[in-house]
Structure formats: structure tokens, C-alpha cells
């Protein structure tokens, strides 16, 4: 009963949506797909902004849509963050933040709790100094932070975010991402996060749903789904895995050591405190394979792995190899040429060394 | 005093007519404009065309049809008689009805444009913030469309003040009941009272200019934010 279950069928000219999913009732679920894949439409169906003729939706046991049953948008306990912040221009920031709160039907004790929520949302998004301003006098990043706070202030049971960073430039994105991470770390509310940016999803999501042409191609825990050898076509050049690590040591020569079950990796010196959990992303194109550990390689990060799967790549002459890290540390993907595969005789069950050229720390 | 008693009476009557018509049109025009701005109905084109008809038709044509409809044998006339109101032509309220129809596009079109400019998004946002459709209409759509309403109100008022053909057809020329400024000026000219005509026409000219000045001076301000 702790999950978000839904089934939607929608037929529009030139587009159809047909999904049937159960998502975890906690953490961040990333809905990933290219434009036109139906991810925003799916989110709108869940919010009730689109009405699928055939649909079922229950959130933690509470049925919001079923045959003959439809709860209108304004009665759903959601928070929705639009791609453009869509603040009301005729209200100042605090007026925007209070717009929804004033309308939540609750007892006075509930109102007091909402006040606490508002204060917390304002603090979480760092917008105390903006409260009296009109939206026209905010930067794009500030506006989006207010938009997120406005949704959070309602204490929603489900937070829906439709590409909240897509309309922002890189600088603004980097400004907001830490706030989104705080949401993820500090709030209990489940979040559905729509994005077409693999890095955003890899950084924020715990669960990943892959959509293509209105159909679900894959759905599962983020690390497992990203490590599936049969899916990289969907990510194209961004194919790669995510590994959860812990910052274990700062070394004298400007490197930091990250540990994870089954191994360790070195990255450039981190400013974070020891013991901090860090999510790392390793692109398939940054992983090469050798049969024996070369004694004179410049590459520091090398892991003993076992080949478990080989799938044709979407790129001509290349294959994607899935590698199990010994010790239950998860999996890696490597994109190598078909010729290398043949020359090295890479096949399932074979023990090889993975050389990792680059590790991106996602925080 | 450069305006005589009858002139003042005509001015007062004109302001009263224009005010009543503007208020009534806010009430009637807003739902029509809202419907036109949101509907995907095939009737949208037809209704839009009917609303815009007074822009194209000569006022005398419009006035003629309304006179016939409100007359003792017309459908509206029969209805008003059955309701015990009597006949509308050549009464103040007959003029109100006629002016409402005549000025309808001046209310509906700016308001419709304003609603269309507001778009769907703010209403969706309002819905996700727990606002019912009615709540969203009054607290989001109306405030956001306010500049359109002000334009529409001013245009409707000014257009009603300036009408002549319809007034003459429906209202006739009864002092204190249906004699508007425009007709009064016409009377002055007919009677060769050019000085009086000048005075009243001057008042109208200044009034019209001030109204438009207020409108244009205010607009850019409203667009900020």
C-alpha cells in the first residue's frame, strides 16, 4: 500500500500513451525519455491535468482515478513544479507561496503545521530575502526556487516536477541542483521527476523509468536500470552506470579515495567531509578492458570484473559489455569495438580488468 | 453658462446610458469572452461573427432590426408586453438594450484577447494549488486579464457615448428620456444653432480625447511585471 500505482491509456492524433506501472512511495523516481516520449503527458495524467479515458491511479492506497471515479486536480494533495516557474505575476513572492496554503482545507492545527512547512520550504530553497518581490524582478533561477517552495509549502503527499531545470542555463541549473538534493535528502515526500537530461536523473533519482513513444521501456532501481546492457541505446552517448560510494580518505597528493562494496576509486580532491556518501557516474565510453593488469598504465582506477553480458551497441562496430564488480559492488558498462571483443575473446563468465578513464562525482 | 439646460440634460442622460450599458456589458460580455477564449466548439466562429456584427453593420440597419423586433409585433415586443413591461422603443431602457447589443464587440473582443493572452498555464497552476475552477477564474484569470477589462470598459463607455444611428432609430428624440448628446448636437445644427452645437461638440471632443489619453497613458504601465 506504500506505492504509487497507475495505468493510463490515451490516444491522441499522432501520439498514444500506454503505461502500467508501480512506483515506490518514497524517494525520487526519474521519468526519463526524449522529447515526445510522453513523460510530461504521464506526469500531467498523474496530476489530473490530462484526463486519460482509460485510467487508474492510486497513491499509497488512495484511489484518485478509476472507471467512473475522478478526483479533480484541485482536490489532489500534490505539489506540481512546472518547467517555467509559472509564478502569478500579480502576486508578490509570499503571495505566491501562500496562494495554495490558503486553500488547503484543514483544521487550525493543520494550518499551524502548514506554517511550519512554509517556513521550512522558504529556508530550504533559500528565498527569505525575496518574499516581498514581484516575480518580474526575480532571476530565472530564483523564480524556479520560489516555484518549488510554493509546491512544497502545501505539504504535498506527492511532488511532481516537470523538467524544473530545463528552461535554465547551466549556471542556474548548478544553483538549483543542491536545493533539489536537499529535498531528496531531507523530505519524506515521494518525488516524480521528469527529465531528458541523463546527468540530472543520475544525480537525483533512486528509481528510474525509461519512456519511449508513450511506452515504458524499463522501470527499476536507478543503479540496476542504468547498468542494464540492453538499454544504453536509450541513453546514446550518455550510457553509463551510477555507483554509490563513501568518501574514505583524502590523500596527500591531491586525490580523494572513494570506497564501495567491492573496491575503491580515486578522484580529484573533494571538499566534502569524510564519510560523505557520493554518487559517481561512469560512462560506458570511459571504460576499457584488459585481460591482465598492465604494470605501467597511467590509469589509477582499475577493477577486477566478470563479463556477464554482451549486447550490440547502437553505434556501428561497437558492443556494450556488462561487467559485474567482484564483491557485490554493482556493475559497470563498457563500450568497446567488436574487433577488440573478438581479439580479446571477451565472453560471459570471463574475468577481466576494467580500466576507468574518468569518474564523474555527481554532487 | 455656455451649455443650456437641455444640453446638460442630454449630457447627464448620455453618461447614465453609457454607465448602465458598461456595467451590463461587463456582466454579459465576460462570460461570452471567456467562452470564446476557451472553447474548441465548432460554434466558436459563428458566435464570434455574431458578436462582431455591430462593428460592420450600419447602425441604422441594426437599429431598424431592433426596432422591428422590439415593436408591438416583434418577438421581443411581444415578450415585453406579456411580461407587463410594455414596449421598449422610444424609452430609456429600450436604448439600453439596443446599446448593449451595439457595443457588445467593444466589450467582448478586448476581454477575449486578454483571456487568450492569460493562457491555460496560470489556471493549471492554480488548480495544482487547490483552487477550484471558479476560484481560479476570479482570483487568477480576472486579475491577470485586468488591463483587458479596463480597455474594454473604456471603449464600451466611449462607444456608447458616441452612438447616433441606433439612438435615433430606437430612442427617437424625447428630451429627458432618450435625447442623447449626439442627437442634441444634430438638433442644434438642424436649428442653425451653431454656437450651441460648437459648445456641445467641443465638450465631446475634449471628453473623447481625455478618455483615449487615459487609456494609452495607462497601458504601458499595466504591462510591467
TrEMBL record, chain A:
Q: Which SMART domains match?
A: AAA
Work out whether the entry's keyword set contains ATP-binding.
yes
Instruction: List residues of the Mop domain.
Output: 296-363
Segments forming domain ABC transporter = 1-238
Question: What InterPro entries has UniProt attached to this entry?
Answer: AAA+_ATPase, ABC_transporter-like_ATP-bd, ABC_transporter-like_CS, Mo/tungstate-bd_C_term_dom, ModC_ABC_ATP-bd, Molybdenum_import_ModC, Mop_domain, P-loop_NTPase
> Which SUPFAM superfamilies does the UniProt entry name for this protein?
MOP-like, P-loop containing nucleoside triphosphate hydrolases
Under PROSITE patterns, the record lists: ABC_TRANSPORTER_1, ABC_TRANSPORTER_2, MOP
A GO molecular-function descriptor:
ATP binding
Sorted alphabetically, which keywords does the UniProt record give? Answer: ATP-binding, Cell inner membrane, Cell membrane, Membrane, Molybdenum, Nucleotide-binding, Translocase, Transport
NCBIfam families attached here?
modC_ABC (TIGR02142)
Q: In its UniProt entry, what is this protein called?
A: Molybdate transport system ATP-binding protein
From TrEMBL, chain B:
**Which residue ranges does UniProt annotate as crossing the membrane?**
12-36, 48-70, 82-104, 136-158, 200-218
> Which CDD domains does this entry report, sorted A to Z?
TM_PBP2 (cd06261)
Q: Which UniProt keywords apply?
A: Cell inner membrane, Cell membrane, Membrane, Molybdenum, Transmembrane, Transmembrane helix, Transport
Tell whether Transport is among the UniProt keywords: yes
Q: Which domain of life is it from?
A: Bacteria
GO MF annotation list: molybdate ion transmembrane transporter activity
Q: How does it sit in the membrane?
A: Multi-pass membrane protein
Where in the cell is the protein located? Cell inner membrane; Cell membrane
What GO CC terms are in its UniProt record? plasma membrane
In this chain the ABC transmembrane type-1 domain maps to 11-216
Q: Which family does it belong to?
A: Belongs to the binding-protein-dependent transport system permease family. CysTW subfamily.
Q: What does this protein do?
A: Part of the binding-protein-dependent transport system for molybdenum; probably responsible for the translocation of the substrate across the membrane.
What protein name is recorded for this chain? Molybdenum transport system permease
**Source organism (scientific name):** Rhodocyclus tenuis (Rhodospirillum tenue)
Amino acid at each position: 500500500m506504500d506505492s504509487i500505482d497507475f495505468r493510463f491509456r490515451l490516444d491522441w492524433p499522432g501520439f498514444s500513451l500506454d503505461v502500467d506501472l508501480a512506483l515506490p512511495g518514497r524517494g525520487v523516481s526519474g521519468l526519463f525519455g526524449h522529447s515526445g516520449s510522453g513523460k510530461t503527458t504521464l506526469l500531467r495524467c498523474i496530476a489530473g491535468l490530462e484526463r486519460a479515458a482509460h485510467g487508474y491511479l492510486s497513491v499509497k492506497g488512495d484511489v484518485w482515478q478509476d472507471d467512473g471515479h475522478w478526483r479533480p486536480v484541485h482536490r489532489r494533495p500534490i505539489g506540481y513544479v512546472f518547467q517555467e516557474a509559472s509564478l502569478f505575476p500579480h502576486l508578490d513572492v509570499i503571495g505566491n507561496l501562500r496562494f495554495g496554503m490558503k486553500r488547503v482545507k484543514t483544521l487550525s492545527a493543520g494550518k499551524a503545521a502548514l506554517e511550519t512547512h512554509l517556513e521550512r520550504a522558504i529556508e530550504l530553497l533559500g528565498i527569505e530575502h525575496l518574499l516581498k518581490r514581484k516575480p518580474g524582478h526575480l532571476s530565472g533561477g530564483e523564480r524556479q526556487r520560489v516555484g518549488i517552495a510554493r509546491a512544497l509549502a502545501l505539504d504535498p503527499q506527492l511532488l511532481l516536477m516537470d523538467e524544473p531545470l530545463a528552461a535554465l542555463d547551466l549556471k542556474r541549473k548548478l544553483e538549483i541542483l543542491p536545493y533539489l538534493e536537499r529535498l531528496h535528502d531531507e523530505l519524506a515526500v515521494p518525488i516524480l521527476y521528469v527529465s531528458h537530461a541523463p546527468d540530472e536523473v543520475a544525480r537525483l533519482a533512486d528509481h528510474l523509468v525509461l519512456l519511449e513513444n508513450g511506452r515504458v521501456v524499463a522501470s527499476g532501481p536507478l543503479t540496476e536500470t542504468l547498468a542494464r546492457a540492453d538499454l544504453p541505446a536509450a541513453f546514446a552517448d550518455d550510457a553509463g552506470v551510477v555507483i554509490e560510494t563513501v568518501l574514505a580518505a583524502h590523500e596527500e597528493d591531491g586525490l580523494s579515495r572513494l570506497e564501495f562494496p567491492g573496491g575503491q576509486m580515486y578522484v580529484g580532491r573533494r571538499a566534502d567531509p569524510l564519510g560523505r556518501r557520493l554518487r559517481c557516474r561512469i560512462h560506458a565510453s570511459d571504460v576499457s578492458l584488459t585481460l591482465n593488469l598492465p604494470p605501467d598504465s597511467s590509469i589509477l582506477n582499475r577493477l577486477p570484473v566478470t563479463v556477464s553480458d554482451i549486447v550490440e551497441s547502437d553505434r556501428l562496430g561497437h558492443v556494450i559489455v556488462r561487467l559485474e564488480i567482484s564483491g557485490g559492488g554493482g556493475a559497470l558498462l563498457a563500450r568497446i569495438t567488436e574487433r577488440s571483443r573478438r581479439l580479446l575473446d571477451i565472453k560471459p563468465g570471463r574475468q577481466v580488468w576494467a580500466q576507468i578513464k574518468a569518474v564523474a562525482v555527481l554532487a | 453658462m455656455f451649455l443650456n439646460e437641455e444640453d446638460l440634460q442630454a449630457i447627464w442622460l448620455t453618461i447614465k446610458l453609457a454607465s448602465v450599458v458598461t456595467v451590463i456589458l461587463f456582466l454579459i460580455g465576460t462570460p461570452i469572452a471567456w467562452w470564446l477564449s476557451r472553447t474548441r466548439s465548432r460554434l466558436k466562429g459563428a458566435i464570434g461573427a455574431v458578436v462582431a456584427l455591430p462593428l460592420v453593420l450600419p447602425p441604422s440597419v441594426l437599429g431598424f432590426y431592433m426596432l422591428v423586433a422590439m415593436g408591438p409585433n416583434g418577438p421581443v415586443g411581444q415578450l415585453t408586453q406579456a411580461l407587463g413591461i410594455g414596449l421598449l422603443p422610444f424609452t430609456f431602457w429600450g436604448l439600453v438594450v439596443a446599446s448593449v447589443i451595439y457595443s457588445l464587440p467593444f466589450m467582448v473582443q478586448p476581454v477575449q484577447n486578454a483571456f487568450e493572452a492569460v493562457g491555460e498555464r496560470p489556471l493549471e497552476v492554480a488548480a495544482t494549488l487547490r483552487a477550484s475552477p471558479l476560484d481560479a477564474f476570479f482570483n487568477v484569470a480576472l486579475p491577470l486579464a485586468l488591463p483587458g477589462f479596463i480597455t474594454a470598459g473604456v471603449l464600451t463607455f466611449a462607444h456608447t457615448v458616441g452612438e447616433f444611428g441606433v439612438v435615433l432609430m430606437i430612442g427617437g428624440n424625447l428630451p429627458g428620456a432618450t435625447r442623447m448628446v449626439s442627437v442634441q448636437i444634430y438638433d442644434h445644427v438642424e436649428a442653425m444653432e451653431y454656437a450651441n452645437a460648437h459648445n456641445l461638440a467641443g465638450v465631446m471632443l475634449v471628453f473623447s480625447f481625455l478618455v483615449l489619453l487615459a487609456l494609452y497613458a495607462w497601458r504601458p504601465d499595466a504591462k510591467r511585471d
